[in-house]
Specification:
single chain, 257 residues, 9 helices
Length: 257
């Protein structure tokens, strides 16, 4: 079992960076007070700081679920609007008949809409987990042979590709799909948690005497950066759940009568 298992909660990349930066500041403050750390603890602190610098070098994106949901909804809405615009451009054909090419373009737009967004876009108001299920079905439809060909003829391959990427990101953030283990950002986050887990174990092994004021100070200075970041992550998740609940409430139809 890795040392990361001793940590109560996983942090986002930005949370790791905040905690690691704060730990480095606390270590410098302890040095300025002439408080010397044990060799094992100091090595563990160095490992966390190095892992933090590695994460910073990657410059990884860490958006909140609400931000990802907002971006996804905009992309879905835009794709739907593009299809609708093509259809509207070729309506009233009873007055002005369509050419063969125009009729073919309208058929392609109607095909894509009927297969990908047959029920419209109201599903973007569902709670996150339910929306992701609908998005997954949408992406599966986009991979269909006839739909893919129609999308290419319409010149919407880039937009369809972005819809697929938003769906992948949505699933990863929800934790319902796995991130690629080879992703450097994923490896860096895993290494950071392993380093801080090791620090946690070393701190408790070296400084666990509650009667010693220095031990209490060192536990606070070395472990509070992670604990504070974990508490902020907990509050962020609570806000996300509340936003998801509000989204569901807004989507529920009002009772008749």
């Amino acid at each position: 079992m890795g040392k990361a298992a001793f940590l109560a909660r996983r942090l986002t990349p930005s949370g790791c960076i905040v905690a690691g930066t704060k730990l480095a500041a606390h270590r410098e403050a302890l040095k300025s007070k002439k408080i010397k750390l044990s060799a094992k603890v100091d090595a563990a602190v160095h490992a966390v700081i190095a892992s933090t610098e590695a994460l910073e070098a990657l410059g990884s994106l860490d958006a909140t679920m609400m931000e990802i949901d907002r971006g996804t909804d905009r992309c879905i809405g835009a794709f739907s609007s593009q299809l609708a615009s093509i259809e509207r451009a070729f309506d009233h054909d009873d007055i002005l008949p369509l050419t063969e090419d125009e009729a073919a373009r309208r058929r392609d737009a109607l095909l894509v809409r009927s297969e990908v967004l047959s029920s419209g876009t109201d599903f973007i108001r569902l709670v996150y987990s339910q929306q992701w299920v609908r998005m997954s079905a949408m992406v599966k439809a986009l991979d269909g042979k006839d739909v893919k060909a129609a999308v290419e003829r319409l010149g919407l391959s880039a937009e369809a590709g972005r819809l697929q990427r938003w769906t992948e990101l949505y699933g990863k953030k929800l934790g319902v799909t796995e991130a690629k283990a080879a992703d450097p950002a994923i490896k860096a986050v895993e290494a950071w948690h392993e380093a801080y887990g090791t620090l946690l174990v070393q701190v408790h092994a070296e400084y666990d005497d509650d009667r010693d004021e220095t031990h209490a100070l060192l536990r606070d200075r070395l472990l509070s950066p992670y604990e504070d970041a974990a508490e902020e992550a907990r509050r962020t998740e609570q806000r996300a759940r509340a936003a998801s609940a509000r989204k569901k409430t807004q989507a529920e139809p009002e009772p008749i009568g």
